[in-house]
Design brief:
- The chain is mainly α.
- It has a single domain (3-198), classed as Up-down Bundle (Four Helix Bundle (Hemerythrin (Met), subunit A)).
- The chain is built from 7 helices and 4 strands; from the N terminus they run H-H-H-H-E-E-H-E-H-H-E.
- The chain has a two-stranded antiparallel ribbon. The chain has a two-stranded parallel sheet with strand order 3-4.
- Helix 1 runs antiparallel to helix 4 (79-93) and helix 1 (3-22) packs parallel to helix 5 (113-134).
- The radius of gyration is 16 Å and the shape is globular.
């Protein structure tokens, strides 16, 4: 996977995350989500924090502030627009190929920057599906992005399960579409939400 391809999928998944966020109605924030113990508000807070602010801070090799980690992003009526703007800043911070090189300190452990970026792209898409499924929306993803997310889930699934980030895999047919397989491998039931496959003209 080249830098150009990965950054392209980052841009695609960020745009889709912003679209889904704009579709969340205020009265849906207190509804349950498919993430155990999390309502939509808690899920959105985690999603916004790590896929926009966290994504930019990882690129800049800086830590998230306590103010950010404790903020209720949904408290502001225009939180979705603020999230979309922050996603744009975060994606722009990864536009330099040099940012993808080297390692990033995760606070006691080092991980290749490209792996961190890939895992956050996965968070954009998979938690985007979680939000969409909980709010009556769909996730629109190209086959290229779906295959990218599946690869991340397969490569890092054990690490996620070690920290309770994934439940046990849910059986999904081997010939199922790649994003459905990614959902199953991450412990989600694909039938609980909807994925719309789109052609973004990427050629991948």
């Amino acid at each position: 996977m080249t830098y150009d391809e990965a950054h392209q999928y980052m841009s695609e998944c960020a745009a889709e995350a912003a679209r889904i966020a704009r579709g969340v109605r205020p009265e849906q924030l207190d509804a349950p989500s498919h993430c155990a113990g999390w309502d939509v508000r808690t899920l959105v807070g985690h999603w916004v924090l790590y896929t926009s602010h966290g994504l930019e801070h990882r690129a800049r090799r800086t830590a998230l502030s306590e103010e950010l980690t404790s903020r209720d992003f949904t408290a502001e009526p225009d939180w979705a627009e603020a999230y979309a703007a922050q996603l744009d800043r975060a994606v722009a911070a990864w536009a330099d190929p040099a940012v993808w090189e080297g390692e990033i300190d995760l606070g006691g452990a080092m991980m290749p920057a490209a792996d961190i970026a890939a895992m956050i792209i996965k968070e954009m898409a998979v938690h985007g599906w979680d939000v969409a499924a909980a709010t009556g929306q769909d996730l629109r993803v190209s086959d290229g992005a779906a295959r990218f997310v599946l690869d991340v889930v397969l490569r890092h699934g054990d690490l996620y399960r070690q920290y309770d980030g994934f439940a046990d895999p849910v059986p999904v047919p081997d010939d199922a579409p790649p994003f459905d397989r990614a959902l199953g491998e991450s412990g989600r039931h694909p039938r609980q939400g909807k994925v719309v496959r789109v052609d973004h003209g990427t050629g991948h």
